């Protein structure tokens, strides 16, 4: 597939210096995908960057699929393109690698309800506070504590400014 005609802005993105951050903002249909495909091709063919050292992350599986199709359509210009991932697939791969290497226990990965896991962690923290004599045994309800934490986060308040003691059912 021949290289597309590019605008001056697209050329600037493609030729942007290595190691410097760039943000590409443009409306739908303006050629962002084409520009980024050309950037990858330029990195590999003109600048000699190893395709294995390029991380291409797309927001979702559909965007990943479309970007990969564009790279594959340019196989004559980039015979060995880098892998293209969605954020989810890349993160999943990192977690699986950490588990297989022993850096992360499979038990530490929680695939169920996040709220359930958070409640368990809050209960464990409360048990430690009871053991340390900082709060009474039934003075705080875990669900109410989480609700309070949510309010503090929403209001961008520090938790120490709002004592938890007394908000429980006990």
Share in helix: 40-55%
Helix run count: 6
Structure classification: mainly alpha
| Spatial strand sequence of the major β-sheet | 1-2
What shape does the CA trace take?
elongated
CATH architecture of the largest domain: 3-Layer(aba) Sandwich
Number of structural domains: 2
The secondary-structure element order is: HHEHEHHH
Content of β-strand: under 5%
Low-confidence stretches: 161-170
Calculate Rg over CA atoms.
25 Å
- The top-level CATH class of the largest domain is Alpha Beta
The largest pleated sheet is described as: 2 strands, parallel
What does this protein look like?
- This protein folds into two domains: 8-100, P-loop containing nucleotide triphosphate hydrolases (Rossmann fold, 3-Layer(aba) Sandwich), CATH 3.40.50; 110-161, no CATH class.
- The protein has 170 residues and is mainly α.
- Residues 161-170 have low confidence and may be disordered.
- Helix 1 packs across helix 2 (32-45).
- It contains six helices and two strands.
- Strands 1-2 form a two-stranded parallel sheet.
- The longest helix is centred in the C-terminal third of the chain and has 18 residues, at 114-131.
- It is elongated, with a radius of gyration of 25 Å.
Name the features:
single chain, elongated, mainly alpha, Rossmann fold, two-stranded parallel sheet, 170 residues
